[in-house]
Design goal:
The protein is of the alpha/beta class. It has a seven-stranded mixed sheet with strand order 2-1-3-4-5-6-7. It has a single domain, classed as Maf protein (Alpha-Beta Complex).
């Protein structure tokens, strides 16, 4: 079993899709929200929220993986845990919002507010200076909380002046792939996953991760 240390079901869907190509079936991947619902795993109670106070994406990914794995192990449930931290680094903002991407406007996970703040910060910045990069860091911990796999993926693009498309999540409606002239919000999910930072990070460790998950099942 592989537990994804997130309650973001859209992120879970992306991970399941990406791991399927390595023959890891969706029924072997869960996110921590199952511990809060009426499933068998809920007997352990809610998994504590991880304080993401690392200074890098890699540090936060490792915190999510290790702390969640150790909590589950203490409750008698052993599994590999994948922590992933990702965000947007905008050139004109000296790398902001960076590790604060999910709470850029103050409230964690408020995509609309985060996007609005980003557009305000970039008001008046010309197209040629609106370059940006998505970054995804992945860390996988064993049941004891030891990190066994890490990877990082990046994807370059630019920030458009108004949201386009309804797909994806986070800053996807503002992040345009220059060569395609489409934002992640406009691209089909399969195309986004093929190009995305998260897809690149997971593909880098996919075979090793698949081997661990299947061997432990």
């Amino acid at each position: 079993m592989l537990i994804l240390a997130t309650r973001n079901r859209k992120k879970l869907a992306e991970v399941v899709d990406l791991l399927a190509r390595f023959k890891v079936s969706g029924d072997l991947v869960r996110d921590v929200s199952v511990f809060d619902e009426g499933e068998e795993l809920a007997r352990f109670g809610p998994v504590p929220e991880v304080v993401e106070d690392g200074e890098t994406f890699a540090a936060n990914a490792a915190l999510k993986a290790t702390q969640t794995a150790r909590f589950l192990s203490e409750q008698g449930y052993e599994a590999f845990v994948l922590g992933e931290d990702s965000g947007l680094c905008v050139d004109a903002l000296k790398g902001a919002p960076g590790v604060f991407s999910a709470r850029y406007a103050g409230t964690h996970g408020d995509d609309d507010a985060n996007n609005a703040k980003l557009l305000t910060e970039l008001d008046g910045v010309p197209a040629e200076k609106r370059g940006a990069g998505y970054v995804s860091s992945v860390a996988v911990a064993d049941a004891a909380g030891g990190i066994v796999l890490t990877a990082e993926g990046t994807c370059r693009g630019r920030i458009v002046t108004a949201p386009r498309g309804t797909g994806g999540f986070g800053y996807d409606p503002l992040f345009e792939i220059r060569e395609l002239h489409r934002t992640f919000g406009e691209l089909p999910a399969a195309v986004k996953r093929a190009l995305s930072h998260r897809g690149r990070a997971l593909r880098a460790i996919g075979p090793q991760l698949a081997g661990l998950v299947r061997a432990a099942d």
